[in-house]
Amino acid sequence: MSIIMKKSVPIALVFITAVIFLLEYFVLPTELKSTVTMLQNWGIILTAFTLGFGAVNMFVFHGKQVSRRAKGQWPYSLWLLIILVLFTLVGVIMGATSTQYSWLYNSSYFALSATVYSSLGFYMTSGIYRALRAKNAESALLLIVGVIVLARNAPALAAQFPILVNMDSWLSSVPTTSAQRGIMIGAALGAIALGLRTMIGRETGFLGQTTEGEKGG
Amino acid sequence: MLVAGRMFALGMLIAICVLIIVCMELAKKNLPTFRKIAGLDALPEMIGRAAEMGKPVHYTTGLGELNTNMASQLVAGLSVLSYVSEICAKLGVRVIYTVYQSQVMPIATELMKEAYTRAGKADEFDADDQVRYMSGEQFAYASAVQGVAERERPAANIMIGPFYAESMLFAETFYRIGSIQLAGTARGYQIPFFAVVCDYLLIAEEIYAAGAYVSKDAVLTGSIRGQDVGKFIALILMLVGVILTLAGSNALINVMKL
Fold first, then answer.
1. What is the mean predicted confidence (pLDDT) over A143-153?
2. What is the topology classification, in CATH, of domain B38-215?
3. Using CA atoms, how far apart are residues B21 and A205, in angstroms rounded to an integer?
4. A177, B195 contact by CB (below 8 A)
5. Which of B208, B227, B256 to mutate against chain A (most A CBs within 10 Å)?
6. Does B99 touch chain A (CB under 8 A)?
7. ipTM topping 0.90
8. How far apart (Å, rounded) are the C-alpha atoms in residues A46 and A188?
9. Which of A65, B82, B83, B171 could lock B214 by a disulfide, CB 3.0 to 4.6 Å apart?
10. What are the sequence ranges of the domains in chain B?
11. CA distances from A1 to A5, A50, A208, B211, B252 (A)
């Protein structure tokens, strides 16, 4: 692939698109609205199209696992392929809004998804258990703050010691908010720098590393 | 012409962009010095550990999508993926990149292929095995990544991008299997989770600087300097705002509302 098609054309496309979106946000919103909506729709169509890549990747990877009888993996791969085919067939034949498809989705994925989300509580507990140990000054501070916030959220303790409510309120509105805002300002500046690097084609996460010849000085 | 209430923001955006470009130009003459980012400096050591143990490295960019406001975090994650893939290729370590958004696959595949080529090991890259589409559904993706962790036991886990509720699921699972972990996100709610579990952490702006930092490219590192100068401007604005507010003036607030 020539350097023009591989680097120059994508950089030009990104630059033009970024300028249109910036203009739509800061200047003349009504005139550019339809252009931006059209670009967003293109994005949705492209995303839907790339699902095909994902499906092919899954069939190739898990198909290999099944055919090789990969230890500890192939039964899961086989089950995944069966479910993938089942969902696709029901979705295509009956329709993605059909009762059958909805039942399949709600009774399998929906329930499993809720289960995985619920398990988060256990992961958080074990993580917090390790974190709340006073090994040094910083972790001791974290322990103290953690205990205050936990105690404030226990209704019996908060009712018995009303000062906990004030302490929690101060912690949330002063140090936590200040730190969050500091992080937000830093992140916004970082995003601007990354956006600029991407627009001028120097960001390595977008088109890969530039060669010495492409750097141009 | 200009949207009311966004003029100050536009002015600041233009000023910061000019500042970053100036810093990038200045960097061509003198390579700027900037603070060390421990997490990124530790990457070769993490991959070296995987090489010694004969285990793979796991990489993921979380729920990053190219068509949402999380795209910048995804691109930041992909920058480091390219760097990690190159080191892995050099050391003969298999890197497994798990994908949430299918549209990222062609880009990631190309970046990794390019990294393997730079390392002189293009023939060792197996896209079907190393770039794995998991699912476009959050918890299906999370479960699939946990499955990879449990079955393949990677020696190192690198997570850079936008993460949501799955952050703790990943961090704890990989901790339990003994992986050394580097995590980075600009999502404020997930930073504490990563901070308490992972060995190395990139906080917000550090993930955006990561690509430039690891590239060692003078011009790119100039943009990090520009970022830092931008922070000083923000600090000055805050101080001026506090002083003016204490003096009973709303001048700066009114300017910002323009």
1. 92
2. Rossmann fold (3.40.50)
3. 19
4. no
5. B208
6. yes
7. no
8. 27
9. B83
10. 7-30+223-256, 38-215
11. 7, 21, 14, 24, 52
